């Protein structure tokens, strides 16, 4: 995924894109911010705005930190490492930034800019993974998220196709640990379930990627009856590929470790292949991140926090559509 959650440990995932409107442009070319505030600024940086869960989470963080009198800064590196590094350097040079919460496009490339922030007395917090120089980080139970999605997929296979061998397309972006851990959790749970399944690993980073690989997989592996992925956008892409192949989506399962608003709407309908999801929710992520950012901005010790996924199905999806 360029996934929940989630490009480096983590993931999450995602996905994903019914992106919420964030803030007006300022600072570096890809930066954005809310109106100025007297306490200074705090910044949040994800590798891209392609992933809905990141956009929605930033919206929660923005609301909470601006309510406490801080200016909110964000950027859109579009997966470009140097652009993201430059954005951070721009924030450091402002002189009023009190803390940065970041998820680097590539962790190994951020030690130097993190050291620059530390030298300027700006604590850097990691999303999903720590690296050299971070003051603390938000840990995501990525493998556990995958295991829950994998178990749910296996349970559906055993119930729907008893005694039959079924293919499962596992869609993930495994260029970083965020996707690798979730994918491994899904596969481990499938293998441990006793379900008679054949696992097909499929690589994707976006909704369109997922559509393309699912389209090809359905031709190459007609035994596929289930999709398991690490982002809501990937789930939507594989669903559309199935529909466009003129297959009955009622014969399929499609479970992800993330969901977008569009995915929630499909869960609510109850008559599509997307019946449930295991999500790192924007409220949970945003609340944890804003608490940590405010602690860091105020010079307090920041303890590591860990969040897990929430099962979302027809019984509780309405609350996530408000």
From TrEMBL:
Molecular function in Gene Ontology: carbohydrate binding
Entry's localization field: Cell envelope
Name the record gives this protein: Sugar ABC transporter substrate-binding protein
Organism name: Bifidobacterium tibiigranuli
Signal peptide residue numbers: 1-23
Family of this protein: Belongs to the bacterial solute-binding protein 2 family.
Keywords: Signal
Domain called Periplasmic binding protein: residue spans: 42-301
Pfam family, one: Peripla_BP_4
Superkingdom of source: Bacteria
GO CC field: cell envelope
Entry-linked InterPro entries: Peripla_BP_I (IPR028082), SBP_2_dom (IPR025997)
């Amino acid at each position: 995924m360029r996934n929940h959650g989630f490009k480096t440990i983590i993931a999450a995932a995602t996905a994903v894109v019914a992106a919420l409107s964030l803030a007006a442009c300022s600072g570096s070319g890809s930066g954005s911010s809310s109106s100025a505030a007297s306490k200074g600024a705090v910044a949040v940086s994800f590798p891209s705005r392609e992933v809905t869960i990141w956009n929605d989470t930033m919206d929660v963080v923005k609301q909470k930190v601006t309510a406490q009198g801080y200016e909110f800064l964000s950027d859109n590196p579009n997966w470009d490492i140097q652009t993201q590094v430059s954005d951070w350097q721009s924030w450091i040079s402002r002189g009023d930034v009190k803390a940065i919460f970041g998820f680097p496009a590539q962790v190994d490339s951020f030690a130097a800019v993190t050291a620059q922030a530390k030298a300027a007395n700006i604590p850097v917090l990691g999303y999903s993974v720590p690296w050299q120089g971070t003051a603390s980080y938000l840990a995501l139970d990525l493998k556990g998220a995958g295991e829950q999605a994998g178990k749910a997929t296996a349970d559906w296979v055993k119930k729907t196709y008893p005694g039959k061998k079924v293919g499962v397309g596992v869609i993930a972006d495994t260029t970083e640990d965020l996707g690798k851990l979730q994918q491994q959790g899904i596969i481990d749970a499938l293998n441990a379930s006793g379900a008679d399944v054949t696992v097909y690993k499929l690589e994707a980073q976006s909704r369109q990627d997922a559509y393309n690989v699912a389209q090809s997989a359905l031709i190459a592996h007609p035994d596929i009856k289930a999709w398991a992925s690490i982002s809501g956008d990937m789930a939507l892409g594989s669903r559309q590929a199935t529909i466009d192949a003129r297959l009955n989506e009622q014969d399929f399962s499609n479970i992800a470790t993330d969901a977008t608003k569009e995915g929630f709407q499909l869960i609510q309908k109850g008559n599509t292949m997307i019946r449930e999801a295991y999500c790192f929710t924007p409220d949970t992520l945003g609340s944890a991140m804003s608490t940590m950012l405010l602690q860091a901005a105020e010079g307090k010790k920041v303890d590591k926090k860990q969040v897990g996924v929430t099962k979302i199905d027809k019984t509780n999806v309405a609350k996530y559509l408000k």
